[in-house]
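[job 0417] fold request received: histidine kinase
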Amino acid sequence: MKLRNKLIISFICLVGILGFPFLVMVVTSQGSRDHIDKMVHVNVKEIEFSSNFNYAIQRVKSNLREMMLELLIDPKAAELSRARENVERNIEYLQRIGAEWQAIVEMDLAENHKDQDFDALNLEKEELAEVRGLLVLMEKFVKATNELMELYNDKVATPATLYERFEKNVEPVSQIIQSKAFELHKDALNEAKREGEAFEKELIYAEQITLLFVVFSFVLACVIAVIIALRMTTPLKQLSDLTARISPENLEERLPVGGNDEFSVLARRFNAMLDLLKANIEKREESERKVIEANNELEQKVRERTATLKEAREAAERASAAKTEFLSSMSHELRTPLNAILGFAQLLNQSRRFPLAEKQKKSVDQIIIGGKFLLALIDQLLELNKIEAGEMQIDLDCVAAEEVLAESLSFVSARARDEKVMIVNMTQAETLPYLRTDQTRLCQVLVNLLSNGIKYNKIGGEVRIWTELQEDRLKIIVADTGVGISEELQDKLFQPFERLGHDGGQVEGTGIGLTIAKRIIESLGGRIGFESRKDEGSAFWVEVPLCDQIDNTGNICLPDTVVEDVAQSGVRPLHRKILYVEDNRENIKLMTAVIQEVEGCEFLVSMDGAKGVKIAQEQRPDLILMDICMPGMTGFEALKQLRANPQTKDIPVIAVSASAMPNDVQAGQEAGFDEYVTKPFDLADLLTKIYHFLDRVPAG
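[job 0417] inference complete; emitting structure tokens
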């Protein structure tokens, strides 16, 4: 049964119980029926109004509580609730009862005034004043209720805020109203009692019976009221207690559900809310568990991937280090015999004491050409390895394009004459811009392109060079009238050691020159490309960035240096001592033959670094030629002892070593060697350096 129906039935019972004594009094007091009927009618109306007034107040409060509970449980359902309409309807009902109550009291006052019943008239005046005061409180209650309804309709207040306003503004006024209404109710009863005493003689028996029934009715009404109160407050207390006990760890308890009244509906919804909350918490915990597992799995994969990448990087670094070590070792091992081959070949070719016949000279020239080719191959391999390892040093500066072209052409002009190929410089009448580049590296690229144009050309052919100015680059084109490249081989052009079918032919080459040129030009921020047709020739081009600031003090390639033949220069240092520290006998033989070309020199030899230092301290040579890699004391250690000794610290020391890697040369220069000559050495260059240091020493 609905709560509203229960309240209506309870009210009807209460009214019936309270009205029953008056009915008995009417039956037992037939002689005073008219007056008693009038009195009963007025008093019953006043009692009815007071009861209805209290009921209306209670209904408004119940509707407000219902609104706040629905807003707390389900805000969307709260928007569709009829509680707001019930509040407005009960307020109108309350105001109508108040107006009728005031009207009945005024009517009773007028009747008493007409009957000249001054005692009753004074009581009615007091009652009218109390009713009017009660109506004033009612208007205050209505105002507070309307303000609470505005907050509810605006949806700006939380249920807690609404409940706080209810307890602060509505509840106190309602309690005062109910208290005064109850007092008026009691006054009505007292008035009925007073008027009954006026008819004491006539209604003694009726009064006794009426009093008996009134007491009985009052007790019964109180019992009913207590029962109703318990039925209404028990579910609310259960809800309040359960709400206090609820926590994420305790979601198993539920409200008891029985019947179909509002409290049962509220209990079902509250239990459903707990079920949903429990399911959401379990779902969230499951999601958190899955997220943790996914994170752990991801972290494990990241660790495994990191370990794999680390192993791959370490393997790549080991492979790179092994390749560098191999190339360094290969360079050292190849340069040692090459040093003897080229050295003795140059001695035979340049010897004035034992000049060679023309046929022998051509054979020695072939030996020198083959040795230099092999040396160039070694140097290019080292250069390619340095580029791939990212160790190539680039010195960018503002460089005049004219100087780069002039220097590059000077390097290949002699070979072009020998090969009977004409070089046509089409840039002589132009004013070329400055380039942002490394002059030495760009010269290296252009010399490679020009050399290829000469090598793969025909007798009487041409190599043309010209430029095209672009927006922010200068395009340099080198075109030849040579054999060209077939279309099916063009994709392999920049691959290392790819000679495009010229292997074993008459044209010498290593197949890595263009590979190095491509890597260099890309490191300079430029591009390289070509166009070629079989049997018609090729046109290679490079694009080089322009310099945005012209710097006339930038690096400038020096013109080609012509090494004078020291054997014919007439320079003859006399009475000089040269100490050669070397552990390889073939190299000692070669250097002995070289020093024999220098007249007036005493040649000292040591095959051990420690003995070499000792000889230097005893003999005080004018120049020391020092190998680097020797058993026992290395060349670096020997140099350190020489520089630490006051007697030998000023003796010039030239490193002569097959360790020709860039880091080897740099290490030698940093260690303090006056010069660093790599094997196989150029005879004329070595003799020039020897004469240079011997000339600095005063003649003995």
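[job 0417] notes: The radius of gyration is 60 Å. The first helix runs from residue 3 to 28.
[job 0417] exit 0
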